[in-house]
Task: inverse folding
């Protein structure tokens, strides 16, 4: 691989990492489409590289989310039990199916995420009262521009089930699971969007370790793709986390929706070998 291609990989990963960190999606949801659509990387190699990058992105980006109080640490440890198991299953499935099927599936998942997040951005979640029922001691709070936001995650059993499904998608597509978890935490578990994004960002790194291990064992981790991507992720992660508090939620959502819809359509057309670029 020549220098120009390596620089393009690093730049694409940096851009993906900035958005991934801001939205709690781990960056993989952007890395795989960018690498496959515009840089011609084999989908399974892109998924393997993405899984490694999601780990890097989560480690770097989560530090700032933790400092801002956006991460519900106790909840993340509970949900992670099913997410990691699902990631291993998903990675094994990905290695056994066709690349075009993976592209089509990612395109569908991207469109789902865009629709779900658009709905979620309109949901107002009132502050939880101090005496709100909280048997698992999951109540958390953070400072949102001088206003204290307090919440208690709801429907934990449903969240556990969906987290397992998110893990399967993470393993199949190298996206970290945040694409499913953020909308579910926001819409179903009644968590503020910043808390959902921060908690998801913290979780996706641990989930992607399982995915990366399976792809590595199968020889699908290509250093010439993964190394430049990791450099880009390191540059973009901190920037994305720092920018999170500078943008209002509706601004993040507007950017998210445009990118998701464009990538979704592109991935589905690519699965049927129709190019629009």
Result:
């Amino acid at each position: 691989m020549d220098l120009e291609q390596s620089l393009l990989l690093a730049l694409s990963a940096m851009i993906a990492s900035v958005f991934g960190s801001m939205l709690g999606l781990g960056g993989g949801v952007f890395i795989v489409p960018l690498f496959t659509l515009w840089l011609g990387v084999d989908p399974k190699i892109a998924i393997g590289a993405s899984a490694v990058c999601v780990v890097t992105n989560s480690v770097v980006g989560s530090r700032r989310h933790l400092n801002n109080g956006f991460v519900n640490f106790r909840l993340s440890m509970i949900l992670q039990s099913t997410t990691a198991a699902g990631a291993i299953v998903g990675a094994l499935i990905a290695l056994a199916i066709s690349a075009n099927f993976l592209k089509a599936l990612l395109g569908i998942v991207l469109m789902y995420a865009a629709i779900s997040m658009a709905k979620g951005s309109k949901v107002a979640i009132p502050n939880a009262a101090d005496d709100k029922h909280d048997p698992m001691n999951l109540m958390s709070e953070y400072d949102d521009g001088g206003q204290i936001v307090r919440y208690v995650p709801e429907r934990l059993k449903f969240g556990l089930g969906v987290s397992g499904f998110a893990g399967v998608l993470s393993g199949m597509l190298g996206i970290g699971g945040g694409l499913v978890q953020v909308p579910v935490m926001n819409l179903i578990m009644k968590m503020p969007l910043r808390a959902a994004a921060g908690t998801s960002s913290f979780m996706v790194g641990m989930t992607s370790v399982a995915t990366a291990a399976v792809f590595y064992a199968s020889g699908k981790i290509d250093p010439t793709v993964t190394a430049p991507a990791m450099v880009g992720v390191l540059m973009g992660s901190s920037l994305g986390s720092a920018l999170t508090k500078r943008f209002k939620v509706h601004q993040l959502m507007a950017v998210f929706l445009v990118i998701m819809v464009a990538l979704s359509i592109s991935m589905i057309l690519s699965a049927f070998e129709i190019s629009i670029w």
Residues 16 and 222 are 19 Å apart (CA to CA). DSSP finds ten helices and two strands in the chain. The chain has one domain: 3-271.
